[in-house]
Write a structure and sequence with these properties.
It is built from 6 helices and 16 strands. The protein has about 280 residues and is an alpha/beta fold. A 6-stranded mixed sheet has the order 5-4-3-2-1-14. A 6-stranded mixed sheet has the order 6-7-8-9-12-13, covered by helices on one side. A hairpin with a 2-residue loop joins strand 4 and strand 5. Helix 1 runs parallel beside helix 3. The N and C termini lie far apart (about 40 Å).
């Protein structure tokens, strides 16, 4: 299959403009043969909100017509799936109003998977949203198994390992890395793909918003941390690469046959990791 991510600007608090941008890039990705396209964090809403009240005005429920339009874009040229970040509104059974930094997998037939950001930095809208409380999960996208994280989540090895152990072939990471996070953009995706021997798609945004400039540096990495494609900087671009799911599923790496063999899953010693719950 062909894995891709879109690095693009986002218009603050303007969902129609961002939806038009997403459908444009989805058409370009489809024309390039992509099967899965990853977009940035908060792609439909922007990120730099100064209060919960301001952000709530851009919250979407998962039955919003916006997602029907995204699904239509997924089937217009060739069947594909996309991962997109947005602000999700939810009213619980008890009447409480929730607001999440969320990411969804959308396909030709609608919503495939939903993730709510668990790890929230003191930055942008994450200062005001509710933390996600759902378990990390892997979703079927055609023959691929896809796990979701959002931005700061990748700074923690544990959730990425949980997704790897659950059978993820690909981790899709919508993100909003500002200039101060350039080291994260350059190094962490390679490390997470290496230590879990899977594909990692990090889609960052570009542009300026509410005093922050975003660094781009989106990337696709393969098992053992191999760089497949990386943006040179903060330009609009579509990254795309062929991937082999069988390679991600075979955790055994023979660097020198019979003399240098590692398996980062089989070689684990969980009995010695008890301190992780501390």
């Amino acid at each position: 299959m062909l894995l891709s991510c879109v690095q693009t600007d986002v218009t603050f608090a303007d969902c129609p403009a961002n939806l038009a941008r997403v459908t444009h890039w989805t058409d370009l990705a489809a024309a390039s043969g992509a099967d899965l396209v990853v977009f940035p964090e908060c792609m439909l809403s922007g990120y730099g909100y100064d209060s919960r009240e301001e952000a709530e005005g851009q919250g979407l429920t998962t039955d919003d017509p916006v997602f029907d339009e995204l699904s239509a874009a997924c089937r217009r040229a060739k069947p594909l799936h996309l991962v997109i970040g947005f602000l999700e509104s939810e009213t619980t059974a008890s009447g409480d109003r929730k607001l999440y930094n969320a990411a969804a997998i959308i396909g030709p037939n609608g919503l495939v998977g939903l993730y709510r950001k668990v790890h929230l930095p003191h930055l942008g809208v994450d200062r005001f949203v509710d933390p996600g409380e759902q378990a990390y999960a892997v979703h079927a996208v055609g023959e691929a198994r896809v796990g979701l994280g959002i931005c700061y989540d990748c700074s923690f090895p544990e959730p990425m390992r949980v997704l790897g152990l659950a059978g993820a072939d690909i981790i899709a990471l919508p993100t909003n890395w500002p200039l101060a996070a350039q080291r994260t953009a350059r190094f962490v995706p390679a490390v997470r793909s290496m230590e879990n021997h899977l594909y990692f798609a990090a889609a960052n945004r570009i542009g300026d918003e509410r005093g922050f400039t975003y660094c781009g540096l989106s990337s696709l990495h393969g098992p053992d941390g191999v760089e497949l494609a990386m943006a040179a900087g903060a330009e609009e671009t579509l990254l795309i690469s062929p991937i082999d799911l069988a390679t991600a599923r075979n955790k055994r790496i023979e660097r020198t046959p019979g003399k240098h063999v590692i398996d980062r899953f089989a070689d684990r010693r969980p009995a010695f990791y008890t301190g992780l719950n501390g």
